[in-house]
């Protein structure tokens, strides 16, 4: 009997403990969910719209993770669409007197900056002023500031505008020293993806395409800045090449700013413009809050904006464009009969060919149903990013977008010498057929295998050029002449017929509405961002981490890329901007 009482007590204790644990867990998850919910903030009805870029401007919504919320992080993102719509609404809002901008804090891509600056230009065209204050102007922040009626600089600041630059690292000498051999199979003389692994220096073709692309981007942003300040591009080039832009006095003498001011002096200027005598009478409207209140109109006419953001990868992915998960999202939109018009926002350097083809298939099915699909290109719409969108009915691109890169490649690493001589491991292969160990990484490809891989790459390249030919109403030969893996800036892509018009996301939406004949419309965005609760549940239900040795991890990484065929940009371009 005593044993039964003890057993019953233990069971009851465990049940109570389990119940408490479950309730605590539910409370914890509920708290996180509530913490992640944000209501539209209250903003002043009248005042100066202050754009200080505290929030990063991004392609699509990116809610903070539960862990970040627990740690007290508050940094959020404002989508490019919401930011542009907020500026457009401010132009018509009688409560917004003018814009006060602090461009030094901008965080985003060149193309995002281009689209946002264009929105600011439209704001100025409405008759309202923009005043900017910069302390340490860079090329990027000055590009934004140049849209302003007046630009002021701190008398204690300094600016370094040096032009556009990008670095490319070549690994061949290091790999030779280590004993790793990368076998590159590609089609396209400009398809330089993989080149850093097989060469010690840049090829003439790669240098040419990158120089011409950078120059095209500079012509766009440099020309815009020069025109805004009433000087020529040549004059601006001379200032930059002569390192004559450093001190506030340099900027004044060059005509790039309208004056210097400390923070308190800027407040005095704002008081004068706002027609008040004291700082306490100034009313600022925080831009991020104003953008959050940017309510979309409700209409039965829907335009879906579908974001293809990130690298194109196999399977499912929340961070990138998963071939399976993203095509499933497209299928959901396709089955929604209330959506007839779609803007396909592409911001991708490409990736897996097979994943890209799955996505393109869903786009084709939508068009077969009579859907109108307008493409809008962000920072990148290259290689696989161009593959999935080349057949769209009309294509908008930013002038600074990197696009094209119509080419294909495959890499097969060979690390047998490293394994044997450096790691002192002996690998023995047993196989049923001659080429079963072709992608084992332990030996180089033989001549027959190299021909096999080249034929596969050539076949996919031919398919790529044919689909571009069909989508852009060009001959395959004409496509091949501008393809060969070459990367183009958006302004160049317009000249050679890869895109139809220079314009941003909102331009594409307005064009889609006009094609559909909509006088009013609602914008619905896909994929829907995950809530904090969904993110938390995904972390709880996700697969547990597999711990590997560094050698195992390195081997697995090489094995994953070996033999796969990619349509991807050759580099992750990060311009010094």
From TrEMBL:
<dbReference type="InterPro" id="IPR047217">
    <property type="entry name" value="S49_SppA_67K_type_N"/>
</dbReference>
<keyword id="KW-0645">Protease</keyword>
<keyword id="KW-0720">Serine protease</keyword>
<dbReference type="InterPro" id="IPR004635">
    <property type="entry name" value="Pept_S49_SppA"/>
</dbReference>
<comment type="similarity">
    <text>Belongs to the peptidase S49 family.</text>
</comment>
<dbReference type="GO" id="GO:0006465">
    <property type="term" value="P:signal peptide processing"/>
</dbReference>
<dbReference type="InterPro" id="IPR029045">
    <property type="entry name" value="ClpP/crotonase-like_dom_sf"/>
</dbReference>
<feature type="active site" description="Proton donor/acceptor">
    <location>
        <position position="191"/>
    </location>
</feature>
<feature type="domain" description="Peptidase S49">
    <location>
        <begin position="368"/>
        <end position="514"/>
    </location>
</feature>
<feature type="active site" description="Nucleophile">
    <location>
        <position position="383"/>
    </location>
</feature>
<feature type="transmembrane region" description="Helical">
    <location>
        <begin position="7"/>
        <end position="35"/>
    </location>
</feature>
<protein>
    <submittedName>
        <fullName>Signal peptide peptidase SppA</fullName>
    </submittedName>
</protein>
<feature type="domain" description="Peptidase S49">
    <location>
        <begin position="125"/>
        <end position="276"/>
    </location>
</feature>
<dbReference type="GO" id="GO:0016020">
    <property type="term" value="C:membrane"/>
</dbReference>
<dbReference type="InterPro" id="IPR002142">
    <property type="entry name" value="Peptidase_S49"/>
</dbReference>
<keyword id="KW-1133">Transmembrane helix</keyword>
<keyword id="KW-0812">Transmembrane</keyword>
<dbReference type="GO" id="GO:0008236">
    <property type="term" value="F:serine-type peptidase activity"/>
</dbReference>
<dbReference type="InterPro" id="IPR004634">
    <property type="entry name" value="Pept_S49_pIV"/>
</dbReference>
<keyword id="KW-0472">Membrane</keyword>
<dbReference type="Pfam" id="PF01343">
    <property type="entry name" value="Peptidase_S49"/>
</dbReference>
<keyword id="KW-0378">Hydrolase</keyword>
<dbReference type="InterPro" id="IPR047272">
    <property type="entry name" value="S49_SppA_C"/>
</dbReference>
